[in-house]
Amino acid sequence: MKNNILWIGFVVVMMVHLIIWTQVEHLAPLLLIKFYVFLSVMFLMLITVINIINRTVPEFLGLSFIGIILLKFVLMYLIRMKLDFEQVPHYKFHFIIPYFVLTGLLTYYTIQLLNQEKKH
């Protein structure tokens, strides 16, 4: 169930953003697609790392999650120049909101894993 919420949330965020991007802002979807490919790869990578940590050393999952969020922030900062966000009008709103929504989904997933550990 928790994996379904992650993927449904990710797809909903992407579809709403794509509709706003193309219909309201009338912008070409290529930059948005590159951004979501990057977010997808990063999201899958971080979910995989969280699962590996949960299976090997579950007592450090909370601390590892803090490091993972820091890693996500640094990766986003580094890739910002490669994706050329500044060419998009109101780029802060277009890219920060999906970033934080996906960070929220990652947090939700980690909390579910932490609560699962408390039950066992």
List the topology elements.
Elements: H1 2-24, H2 30-56, H3 61-83, H4 91-119
Describe this structure in words.
It is built from four helices and no strands. With 120 residues, it is mainly α. The chain has one domain. The longest helix is centred in the last third of the chain and has 29 residues, at 91-119. The radius of gyration is 16 Å and the shape is elongated. The two termini are 18 Å apart. The model has no long low-confidence stretch (mean pLDDT 81). The chain crosses the membrane at residues 5-24, 30-53, 60-79, 91-111. Keywords: Membrane, Transmembrane, Transmembrane helix.
Features:
120 residues; mainly alpha; membrane; transmembrane helix; transmembrane
Count the E strands. 0
Which regions have little confidence, pLDDT < 50, spanning 5+ residues? none
H/I helix tally: 4
User: What's the domain count?
Assistant: 1
Structural class: mainly alpha
Q: Proportion of β residues?
A: under 5%
N→C terminal distance: 18 Å
Mind summarizing the main beta sheet?
Answer: none
Shape: elongated
Average pLDDT, rounded to a whole number, is: 81
User: Radius of gyration over alpha carbons?
Assistant: 16 Å
Order of helices and strands: HHHH
Helical residue percent? over 70%
Transmembrane segments: 5-24, 30-53, 60-79, 91-111
Keywords: Membrane, Transmembrane, Transmembrane helix
Give me a quick take on this structure:
This protein is mainly α. The protein has helices at residues 2-24, 30-56, 61-83, 91-119. α1 packs antiparallel against α4, α2 (30-56) runs parallel beside α4 (91-119) and α3 (61-83) runs antiparallel to α4.
